[in-house]
Specification:
Shape: globular
CATH topology: Rossmann fold
Strand content: 15-25%
Number of strands: 7
Order of helices and strands: HHEHEHEHEHEHEE
Strand order of the largest sheet: 3-2-1-4-5-7-6
Distance between the termini: 33 Å
Number of helices: 7
CATH superfamily: Vaccinia Virus protein VP39
CATH architecture: 3-Layer(aba) Sandwich
């Protein structure tokens, strides 16, 4: 499923290079820690997930973990704007459940519809909401809510709490958490319609 030629050092190097090229598009200079991933994904029953969307998968740190947790018949749509990351993901993760889309999270509903998918069970996002222009941030959050199934979840990790009021405006329920064992320590938001 995963191409054997990829290594953690290759992932870290590509991630760091792109952070310095596009610091506002990438929230951190190193990928997410195991602790952050486990806390973010730990409360979801992944065996029941059929359609999962990931915004800004980067080098696939969380993508790989999602693929391990998801059932065989599920699909993971990874939406990424960075050309280098899109190429890297397509070259290094050989899993038929993964669809890497070069595009914007603001177009999530159109991306799903183009693939004959009505709604997502879960959306995961680490894209830096505070670096986005306000209209783009509002559109991504609203489009995400509309793209989710009635029981769908939106899992967000950020390095500040600045996005919280915007999430609360759109989602019926937003629970917060914190993961200190990450560089940088991360704020987590678990949103339901």
């Amino acid at each position: 499923m995963l191409n054997g030629t990829t290594s953690r050092s290759q992932q870290a190097w590509l991630f760091a290079q792109n952070f310095f090229k596009h610091p506002k598009m990438i929230g951190s200079f190193i990928p997410s820690s195991r602790y952050l991933i486990d806390r973010l994904l730990g409360e979801v029953n992944w065996r029941r997930m059929k359609v999962v969307v990931e915004y800004g998968p980067g080098v696939g740190t969380i993508t790989r973990e999602l693929l391990q947790r998801m059932p065989a018949g599920a699909v993971l749509i990874a939406i990424e704007m960075n050309d280098d990351f899109v190429s890297y993901l397509r070259a290094t993760i050989q899993d038929p459940r993964l669809i890497v889309v070069h595009g914007s999270a603001a177009e999530v509903r159109g991306i799903l519809r183009a693939r004959g998918i009505e709604a997502a069970d879960c959306v995961i996002s680490g894209i830096p909401f505070t670096a986005m222009p306000e209209p783009v941030r509002e559109r991504v959050i609203q489009e995400t809510r509309e793209a989710l199934d009635e029981d769908g979840k939106f899992l967000v990790y950020q390095f500040t709490r600045a996005v919280l009021p915007h999430l609360r405006e759109v989602f019926g329920s937003v629970r917060t958490d914190f993961e200190p064992l990450n560089i940088l320590p991360a704020q987590l938001f678990f949103c339901s319609r």
